[in-house]
Design brief:
Elements lengths: L2 E5 L4 H12 L3 E6 L18 E5 L5 H9 L3 E4 L6 H6 L1 H24 L5 E7 L27 H21 L3 E6 L1 E3 L10 H10 L4 E4 L5 E6 H12 L7 E5 L4 E3 H12 L5 E4 L1 H4 L15 H6 L8 H14 L5
Bound molecules: nicotinamide-adenine-dinucleotide (NAD).
């Protein structure tokens, strides 16, 4: 039995990871400030004898130190997430995404010097590629951000700083870290409240409202089921040669946002209108987006077997069933 410390474990991806780790027979500690997550996401396991849940922030060094003391592995997922949240609250984004990572790495670095080696998984994002125009992103590609006057890039930049720091701890201190760049992750429990597109569309369609597509809807994204992503995360943590390296994680099947909206209306209410909204009206004049984002998964497949198991149609049906079962507002 391993002891896994999961930051942000009451969030969308974190709660699925906690369930998975408990299911594997591990002991799990969670620290979550419930800023975008909710203890409700853990209700199926909250009374599990191997789960220790703390409502608190990973910016609290003492709390982090206590949780790390008996940990074998750390999954650092706590972050400010969601395009809408980031466009609205750049100070929060930058502070929430950089300082806690610094605290965790500093504490792990000290423990490592004392002979206690704890492996870290750092949840990063496809946003670090910024607006690189390449059709398929490989991990060694340049990070191409817009200007600092456009707050939207602060999310990708703050996650890139986390990556730099984590890789520096690997190189300078020998700390085993794995960086996973998630592309769009979807599934039950993801909220549409902070701008995530698929739950936002499904919420609108179930409520009989038009689906709002930003810009011309020709932006493409790749959507992966949270279970496929969790398989990749845990498999990488079990693979020693993944340490000190960065991996794209997700699906490599692109779809335009307009076609995604069409799939959702077809599944729920084919007559529902799809409306278009400019980025300026949706966010602000300062908003800028990236047209296409497709990962190369070759590097991931060079260290673990990986084939996403869930089709987008099946994912949409699963989210609809979950929403109908437990109505969740946007
Ligand atoms: N969902 C995606 O498509 C996606 C894509 C790329 C990267 N990611 C990354 O995956 C991770 C998890 O994202 P998610 O989609 O589950 O989002 P989420 O908002 O559901 O999860 C983040 C969790 O972290 C918690 N949190 C935030 N700041 C905290 C702090 N200081 N201390 C303790 N807890 C804190 C939130 O309450 C929330 O429960 C994030 O690091 C995110 O950047 C997600």
């Amino acid at each position: 039995m391993k002891h896994c410390f999961v930051t942000g474990g009451a969030g969308f991806i974190g709660s699925h990871l906690v369930e998975h780790l408990l299911g594997q027979g591990h002991r799990v500690s969670v620290v979550d400030d419930e800023s975008t997550g909710s203890i409700d996401n853990l209700k199926q396991v909250i009374d599990h004898p191997h789960l220790e849940y703390t409502r608190g922030t990973v910016a609290d060094r003492q709390l982090v130190r206590r949780r790390l003391l008996s940990a074998d592995e750390v999954y650092h997922l706590a972050a400010a997430v969601g395009v809408q949240l980031i466009a609205r609250s750049p100070i929060h984004t930058i502070e929430a995404n950089i300082y806690p990572t610094e605290v965790i790495l500093d504490e792990l670095g000290r423990m490592h010097q004392d002979g206690h080696k704890v492996k870290l998984f750092l949840a990063s994002t496809s946003e670090v590629y910024g607006k690189n125009p390449k059709p398929i992103y490989e991990e060694g590609d340049d990070l191409v951000f817009g200007p600092t006057t456009r707050p939207r890039w602060s999310y990708g930049v703050s996650k890139a700083i986390d990556e730099f720091l984590a890789l520096a701890y690997f190189t300078e201190r020998g700390l085993p870290v794995v960086v996973g760049r998630f592309f769009n992750v979807v599934g039950p429990r993801q909220t549409g409240a902070y701008g995530m597109v698929l739950p936002r569309f499904i919420d609108a369609a179930l409520a009989g409202r038009p689906l709002i597509v930003h810009d011309d809807g020709q932006q493409t994204r790749c959507f992966a089921h949270v279970a496929d992503v969790i398989y990749a995360m845990t498999a990488l943590m079990d693979t020693p040669r993944a340490a000190g390296r960065v991996f794209n994680i997700g699906s490599e099947s692109p779809i335009t946002i307009l076609d995604l909206a069409r799939k959702v209306t077809a599944a729920i209410h084919p007559e529902l209108p799809i409306e278009f909204q400019s980025y300026e009206d949706a966010y602000s004049v300062n908003f800028e987006d990236c047209r296409a984002r497709v990962p190369s998964l070759a590097k991931l497949r060079s260290v673990i077997p990986y084939e996403p198991k869930h089709t987008l149609d099946a994912i949409i049906q699963e989210i609809i069933a979950w929403k109908k079962d437990e109505p969740h507002g946007p």
